[in-house]
Amino acid sequence: MHTTAAGLRARGVDLRLEYLGNLRSPAQILRARAHIRRLATEYDLVHAQFGSACALVTAAAAGVPKLLTIRGSDWATHDATIGFLFFHTRIAAALTRSAVKSFNGIISVSRRVAAEVEGVALDAPVVVLPSPVDLTAFSPRDRRQAKALLGYPDCNEKWILFNSVDLWNPIKRFALAQDAFEIAQATHGNLRLRLATKLPHDQMPLFVAACDLILCTSETEGWPNSVKEALACNVPFVATDVSDLRDIAAVDPICRVCPADAKLIAANMCDVLSDDRPHDLQRHVAWMNVDSIADQMLATYQSVLSHYRERAE
What we know:
The chain is 42% helix and 12% strand. It contains twelve helices and nine strands. The strands form two sheets. It has a five-stranded parallel beta sheet, sandwiched between helices. Strands 1-2-3-4 form a four-stranded parallel beta sheet, sandwiched between helices. Helix 1 packs across helix 12 and helix 2 packs across helix 3. It starts with a helix and ends with a helix. The mean pLDDT is 95.
């Protein structure tokens, strides 16, 4: 969000980022709705960056066009276990679906989510616009050199990247990733599972570029930024069937999408790791660079504004 905002400001957009705070009680939601209703009178357009209660609050803005970005976790539900996330994701998805009809335009971060949203959004146009990836930071490097710069000179291991803010979030299914890694290790050998958690932000591009494969075992995703950044570094993925990853795997066999089965995931990991040929994977995310996404976002703002004003006349 901040990266996109910087790109828009560079294009002359007067942007205010407003944090709505904790929206977990009806009283907090009502206060935030009143706040947004007042604040919206000073602007030409209001853009909610997330569904759920954020969308419900932003829907209160009147007299200006409203745009909503749906990111995936505000749309999909967690079905695997009964617990907090089972109920939380259902409440979030229900709030998103109830609010979506109040918006003049919808941005979806993936084609898969967009196809589902279109059936609910009625007359509001749905635009596919992923969050941008900084291609000046995330770019291909020699993996051995990258490992050496991280303190692993002469490292012959293959590194498997797993990226999650919270390893024990059941939606990420880290246990499945661990099981698949252990099977792959027994088959292929000389592997190391690298966890991209609690790393300094400025170290992430080098860390990602040093890896030989990224593993994504999520139950649901919008468009996983970790996979996007890996592709920018020419690192292939083995993933469960989430987001638009199947579209990439369909045209680039070095990337794999498979069922959530540890043995199948491990077999695909071994296949991918056995292919040492260079692959141009950055091409799949090149159009998601900061400048391109900022240009498309600005064009979306202009389109929503124009359509809104035409209908008001």
